[in-house]
Amino acid sequence: MTLKASEGRIVLSVDMEKKNSWRFESGVTLKLGRGYNNFNLRQINPVNGNVIAAENIPIGTEILFQYNAIQETFRVYNYKPLSGTEIAADIHYYSIPSEMAYAYLDGDEWKPIKPYAFGLRVFRPYSGILQGIEPTQLKDTLYVYTGELSGKIVKTLKACDYCIVFQDTNGREGNIIVFKHYENEDSDNEEVLCVMDELTEQFHECILLVGLTKTDAKSIHESWQKQNQ
């Protein structure tokens, strides 16, 4: 039996245990028990899946999707007899709404699925005389690094910096911040309010920092150095 995706749906195979491991550079892999003392489903639920059928995504492509897609409403039962390997890996099948898909893997690089874009949070460093003061995050502000707004800092609606917690290609936890931006079209779901040219200039002048958190935030100079090491 061959599954076909209905309009606005993506059919996926999902390894329910893929996220529960950590691979070291030596190749040694440890079991990572996420659900024993953590009830945050964004961190616990699997979000990596492989496409079985979709309208605009090639079969076999690995994608990242919304953690709430792992529910009985979207699960596909009795698709085909599972092999021993699939049973051991705990493979499930789901047919999820296409708007729940955030990103796809192109070689070793994650790229956004429209209408999503990738960004980083923006921080202003402390400039006083005290030592060890953390930078201050600018609320509802993101540095964009994909799409037509790449390289710019934008103002968004409230709480639009959604961070995906997924299993990256190196076998370890990865994090990507996504938000909605509709390029060359109007939408009531648009999350970008405006481009902040002044803040963009300040970032290029190494006044501001960007990153996932306060601890990993870097200036444009530090980011360039890291990329070219």
Summarize it.
By secondary structure, this protein is mostly beta strands. It folds into two domains: about 10-110; about 115-225, no CATH class.
What would you say this structure looks like, in words?
This protein is mainly beta. The chain folds into two domains: 9-109; 116-227, no CATH class. It is 11% helix and 37% strand. The chain is built from four helices and 16 strands. The protein has a seven-stranded antiparallel β-sheet with strand order 6-7-1-4-5-8-9.
Question: What's the main sheet like?
Answer: 7 strands, antiparallel
Q: Cα-atom Rg, whole angstroms?
A: 20 Å
Summarize the helix and strand pattern as letters: EEEHEEEHEEEEEEEEEHEH
The strand line-up of the biggest sheet is 6-7-1-4-5-8-9
Structural class of the secondary structure composition? mainly beta
Question: Unreliable segments (pLDDT under 50, ≥5 consecutive)?
Answer: 224-229
The span between the termini is: 50 Å
Shape: globular
Helix tally equals 4
- When the domains are counted, the total is 2
Strand coverage percent: 35-45%
- What is the mean pLDDT? 91
Strand segment count: 16
Helix content: 10-25%
Secondary-structure map with pairings?
Blueprint: E1 9-15, E2 21-23, E3 29-31, H1 41-44, E4 48-53, E5 62-65, E6 75-76, H2 84-89, E7 91-97, E8 101-106, E9 109-112, E10 116-124, E11 136-144, E12 153-156, E13 162-167, E14 173-180, E15 192-195, H3 197-204, E16 209-211, H4 220-227
Antiparallel strand pairs: 1-4, 1-7, 2-3, 4-5, 5-8, 6-7, 8-9, 10-11, 10-14, 10-16, 11-12, 12-15, 13-14
